[in-house]
Amino acid sequence: MASVRELRDRIRSLKNTQQITKAMKQVAAAKIRRAEIARKRALPYAQTLAEMLRDLVAAVSVVDHPFMKAGKGTPPGVILMAADKGLAGAFNSNVTRMGEMYAHEHSGTRFYSVGIKARNAVRRMGIPDHPNWALNAPKLETARAVAARVTQDFTEGTIGEIVLVSSKLVSMMSQRPQTRSLVPIVADELRTSAGERSGPRGAVEFLPSPEFVLSALLPKYLEFTLYSAMLETDASFFAAQLIAMSNATDNANKAIDELTIQMNNARQAAITKELLEIVAGAEALSG
Q1: Each residue's pLDDT expressed in tens, for the chain with a length of 287 residues
Q2: The pTM is what?
Q3: How far is it, in rounded angstroms, from Cα 35 to Cα 231?
Q4: Could you tell me if residue 240 is inside a domain?
Q5: Segments forming the whole domain that contains residue 68
């Protein structure tokens, strides 16, 4: 059984750890509000961009753009997006595990990592040299840099598909990793979704031509899709960290209570032992 001093030191250490987890919980709660606001502000633009893309594809009979053509015989390119930091439960490991599963199913996969944890995971796969970016950098500039790099590799034929593996914020209590194919864009699916929309639609004119506008819109669509994914990854990370730090604080409370009971029992046992020794000594002297 541990001594009273050892138990007191463990309780003091747990209280110090609890202060850290409480502070991180408060920081995550403050940051998730800002991340959620930024994510919601980007939603109307993303929806309008997607609707315009569907209208353009429906208005164009022949689409001559590299993003609309699938590469044959070339490996896919995976943009693995995770956080820069940990202490968020299984948030980063779930995303990186999905990226590893995709790589096992598709041989020759080329990785582009966004986030320090994603970069480290790709390196553990045995791929030390690969394009990588930090998530905490200015997100719009990072999204443009990532889009430019994967677009260059796709048009040059280095990769035949652009796939995004990132986290989706289902709710504050649930963050789910997902795999999305971004490029090539299937025109038939966009035309079908455009035809299924209900309600009246106004006539839209595209100048100088729908083909020209579509060629300019597709790179912007890829950039903003990556930007939205980065905002959602931020919000998902802080939600996961909030839950993890809340659980850690509660577990520290339980451990402190258990150790306090053990310390009280050890102190009482020590006092009882001293009393017995005193009584035994007194009886020995009187006898």
Answers
A1: 678 889 899 999 999 999 999 999 999 999 998 888 988 888 888 888 888 887 777 777 666 778 877 777 789 999 999 999 988 989 999 999 999 999 999 988 999 999 999 999 999 999 888 999 999 889 999 999 999 999 999 988 899 899 999 999 888 888 999 999 988 887 666 655 545 554 555 556 666 776 777 778 888 889 999 999 999 999 999 999 999 999 999 999 999 999 999 999 988 988 888 888 888 888 888 86
A2: 0.83
A3: 7
A4: yes
A5: 21-197+209-244
| Total domain count, the chain | 1
Residue 269 located in a structural domain: no
CATH of the domain at 98: 3.40.1380.10
Query: What are the backbone dihedrals phi and psi of residue 74, each rounded to the nearest 5 degrees, phi first?
Result: -115, 150
Residue 71, domain member (yes or no): yes
The answer to whether position 77 is within a domain reads yes
The number of CA neighbours under 13 Å toward the Cβ of 270 is: 11
